[in-house]
Design goal:
protease; binds iron/sulfur cluster; TIM Barrel; single chain; Ubiquinone biosynthesis protein UbiU; ubiquinone biosynthesis; alpha/beta; hydrolase; metal-binding; eight-stranded parallel β-barrel
């Protein structure tokens, strides 16, 4: 049985090294501009850092994938074409693309560069994935977080020539991936085009009368009592008034964590388990990569004896939004 890959995020070179040191089989990162969907100040890689990162990963037998998962707009596609060319020149192990124009360009110009279809393309059924295979020869699809483990297995049975990558841990987007406009309504900056949801420059924390209020682009996202843990203000995880009460109307803060159903997910035929969080710290990358590595190795040591260790859950919960976790749509309770 081919072992599933542990794929870790890297927002900078120290995080990439931490992923390598803690057992990642592959890492993914983006360039320092709007061509990737974690375009936060101070994050991401220059071309020379990307070259160093790929060399470091390769020297340790780890793959390095470049992310280009935003959507170029009319009049300014050059940064996206340039980023594809740079990824090819640096001989990345794969490029993660969402936009059809970039898929076409990469497929025609750099046929040797394996393409992974980004989660931002929202391809969650066999017909859509086959379309991308036929036209752009994608090697892998990163599945949107809207499928259950049995649904992933059915997809795998239908798609012998496309690898499946799924999210194993990290923050959740509740929207159809690549289609969220919530943040841009209040900040004027789009996750899909400029690559940033809830940019730091639009965030405000206000203390008054013993309460902490978090705002995004001026909009009140949540109000916290003294001593209560405050989450980073994101609209989908805001506490709003509806039906005469104040609560998380769209989504509770909490991280996806699939350890509970790791055997079902691996046995569904996935090739890669992805950790979300290029915007998180080096310590987050190290901790989550190490824990997922341990869980995956424990499964392969003896699949029938696999059990989730309480220490893994405690460690991962400490890194989670809201210090709690969820199986998200793997449970099939909402889609
Ligand atoms: S607002 Fe929420 S659902 Fe939309 S992009 Fe941001 S994190 Fe994702």
């Amino acid at each position: 049985m081919k072992k599933v890959e542990v794929l870790a995020p890297a927002g900078n070179l120290p995080s990439l090294r931490a992923a390598v040191d803690n057992g990642a089989d592959a890492v993914y990162f983006g360039f320092r501009d709007a061509t990737n969907a974690r375009n936060f100040e101070g994050l991401n890689f220059s071309e020379s850092e990307a070259e160093q990162g790929i060399a470091h990963a390769r020297a340790h037998g780890v793959k390095a994938n470049v992310v280009l998962n935003t959507f170029p707009q009319v009049g300014n596609p050059e940064p996206w074409y340039h980023a594809v060319d740079v990824a090819a020149r640096l001989k990345a192990d794969a490029i993660i693309l969402a936009n059809a124009a970039m898929l076409k360009y990469c497929h025609e110009r750099h046929p040797q560069l394996p393409i992974h279809l980004s989660v931002q393309a929202s391809a969650s059924n066999a017909e859509a994935i086959r379309f991308y295979k036929r036209h752009f020869n994608i090697a892998r699809v990163i599945l949107p977080r809207v499928l259950t483990a049995p649904e992933i297995r059915r997809l795998h049975d239908k798609l012998a020539d496309v690898e499946l990558e799924v999210f194993a841990f990290g923050g959740l987007c509740v929207m159809a991936e690549g289609r969220c406009h919530l943040s841009s309504f209040v900040t004027g900056v789009s996750p899909n085009i400029e690559g940033v949801c809830s940019p730091a420059r639009a965030v405000r924390f206000e203390n008054s009368n013993g309460k902490l209020r978090t705002r995004l682009g001026g909009a009140l996202i949540a109000e916290y009592q003294e001593g209560e843990d405050a989450a980073y203000p994101t609209i989908c995880k805001g506490r709003f008034e509806a039906n005469d009460r104040v609560y998380h109307v769209m989504e509770e803060p909490g991280s996806l964590n699939i350890l509970e159903i790791l055997p079902q997910v691996i046995e569904a035929g996935v090739a890669s388990l992805k950790i979300e969080g290029r915007q998180r710290t080096k310590s987050y990358v190290a901790t989550v990569t190490k824990t997922l590595r341990q869980a995956v190795d424990s499964y392969y040591d003896d699949p029938g004896a696999y059990r989730v260790k309480p220490a893994w859950v405690r460690t991962l919960n400490a890194t989670s939004e809201g210090t709690t976790h969820t199986l998200g749509t793997y449970e099939g309770s909402w889609q």
